[in-house]
Amino acid sequence: MVFMAKLLIAYFSKSGTTRARAEQIARVTGGDLFEIKTEKAYPQSYAGTVIVGKKEQLTGELPKLIGRVGDFAAYDRVALGFPVWWFTCPQAVVSFLSQYDFSGKTVWPFCTHGGSGPRGSAGKIRAHCAGDVKDCLDANKLTDEGVAEWLKTE
């Protein structure tokens, strides 16, 4: 499988599940990892996180992020990972999208979830991203072969 040299794997992960999928994608592709981190910490409990995540969605809050991708313009392709919160991507992902110009880039969203699947995630990302956004991959049971098939060069 041939991959373009400049693949960024950007991910937001609260519990580590999405991080594990991002690391798998990086191992298979040789892409560069970048963790999307918020200034504020989310509650430890699942219930607390659900409440905060819903409030962020309802109010349109964009959490402040820590760190920036070095030389973002050099990347042609971005794999964008996140857990599904309230049937879509968390607002931290929207914050990330708002910080960069995705024009001319291809974005491959991938998600982990507790059973809801990707749902409206790709649509929400498309609404906040000027790049070519592909459908969201359900990465809960992602295999190395699945990574290769998902990101294959056309």
From TrEMBL:
Transmembrane segments: none annotated. It comes from the Bacteria. InterPro entries: Flavodoxin/NO_synth, Flavoprotein-like_sf. Residues 6-152 form the Flavodoxin-like domain. Pfam families: Flavodoxin_4. Gene3D superfamilies: 3.40.50.360. SUPFAM superfamilies: Flavoproteins (SSF52218). This is Flavodoxin-like domain-containing protein. It comes from Pyramidobacter piscolens W5455.
